[in-house]
Design goal:
The structure is a homodimer of 247-residue chains. The first copy, chain A, has 247 residues and is of the alpha+beta class. Helix content of chain A is 40%, strand content 20%. In chain A, helix 5 crosses helix 7, helix 5 packs across helix 8 and helix 6 crosses helix 7. The first copy, chain A, binds a DNA duplex (30 and 30 nucleotides) through helix 7.
Chain lengths: 247, 247
DNA sequence: CGTTAATTTGAGACCATTCAATTTCGGTGG
DNA sequence: CCACCGAAATTGAATGGTCTCAAATTAACG
């Protein structure tokens, strides 16, 4: 059945961004790809690399990061199954950051040429692809705000809200319980904090009964108060109304 | 002559992202638009608004910002003439942030429908448009790094490097002297610092002979040391090799 | 020139960092 | 199954970069 096709989650995701005809869906499912496995901490893309494939996350979690000359690291996004980790590399010549696995991952590497061909073959498909990269960008903007203007508690709360909501949208987890295998050090590098302060801030959120966070999973105990603590407004995820009326 | 057409800078910019045929160039120049003027501090786009035009900056400077519930502000990008300030609104239904003018601006408001039509009419045009939004996103990623992991001196130096280089690329200014009408408060909101600390950091950069910054212009006195101070690597701007070889 | 915005200066407080040490946890081999 | 190991999480105390609050000075503009 079609649902068991490795790329069918991609069809489902893109359908939310543009109305895909059966033949569009078929074209997507017919994309060539090579299946690869990647170990925890393994690299999917390296900064500065010429890239000829885009990587779709089938199972597992990944993150993108940039290293500074002084050795510091900033994580610029986390990725969950069914997401591309580097769709921008379909057009940009050189990777401007690295992508690494948070957990063991299964991925589909799709040749950029094939992606561009399928984009050129259907207006709706390319609108969906473009929309995906635009939502990516919107999330980056919100991250600028997060690390730029929120204090440690709000920063971490906001990040957890985002991940919980994105995981919810793909139907991973229930009752506020989600698999999210992240270390406190990675959380620190995503929020621009130190691991020590991240630890103290997490204890604070736990003490207040907002969350429960282990090395493997995140449980949201009180969504409303976590959302308030994180100054969270989901508009930037553009999930309710991805593409607006075109007049 | 063609060069005097208001949209010709757009053709020049997009030519760097994809090879535009004469008919492509013509299609772009034939885009419908309404010319508008905007005063300093005036809004071009408001957060939460439904948008039906994309705004191209003909003259003047603008910035994008997000406001937090507590009243704090984060500026997420600055824009210079020939750039779109909101090309993503061609596809996203609702503006997730505001755009405001740094100086009096002349803009061309182009209907999203017309932009999408011209994109659909030519593979090269749509690749150029998509590339522009992807470079936008790359800059946002670098800003996450900037506010997340650099200290105040490096943050400001990095931002000034970026603006100087982008202004240089469009041929604005010479000898390291560029028009850039920004206040220290805006610089502070762009770097996630307070105005007071921004002021002290600027004095520090001036004292070391790296820059000269007035309310109207930026002069880079020592590019190499400013670049080092800002931990700046221009790769993320994707100007040398925007679109790579497509195999 | 007067008036307001923007920049500059000073001093004290605080949030987050640094540096180290300790404890807990997850996985592995005996 | 348990002892062991390294990684991750936790704790403590001191330092420091940045913030806050105010006031003074300078620049911009009509």
């Amino acid at each position: 059945m079609i649902e068991s096709h490795p790329l069918s989650p991609l069809v489902r995701r893109w359908s939310k961004y543009a109305p895909l005809s059966p033949s569009d869906a078929n074209a997507i499912l017919s994309l060539p790809y090579s299946r690869k496995n990647c170990t925890k901490d393994g690299y999917l893309v390296r900064d500065g690399q010429q890239v000829s494939d885009c990587t779709l996350l089938l199972t597992g979690f990944a993150f993108r990061q940039k290293l500074l000359r002084n050795g510091a690291r900033q994580i610029i996004s986390f990725h969950i199954p069914t997401e591309f980790v580097d769709l921008q590399n379909g057009l940009l010549a050189v990777a401007d950051h690295s992508v690494q696995c948070l957990s063991p991952c299964e991925v589909a590497a799709i040749p950029r040429r094939a992606l561009l061909d399928v984009a050129n073959s259907s207006p709706d498909i390319r609108m969906a692809m473009w929309t995906e990269t635009l939502i990516d960008a919107s999330i980056f903007r919100e991250w600028v705000v997060n690390v730029g203007r929120r204090d440690s508690r709000a920063r971490i709360a906001h990040l957890l809200c985002e991940m919980a909501l994105r995981l919810e949208k793909i139907g991973a987890g229930s009752d506020g319980l989600f698999e999210f295998p992240v270390t406190q050090e990675q959380l620190a590098d995503a929020t621009g904090l130190t691991p020590v302060h991240t630890n103290r801030t997490l204890q604070n959120l736990r003490k207040d009964g907002l969350i429960q966070l282990t090395a493997k999973s995140l449980k949201v105990l009180d969504w409303d108060r976590l959302r308030d603590a994180g100054d969270f407004d989901e508009l930037y995820l553009h999930q309710s109304v991805a593409t607006g009326p075109v007049n």
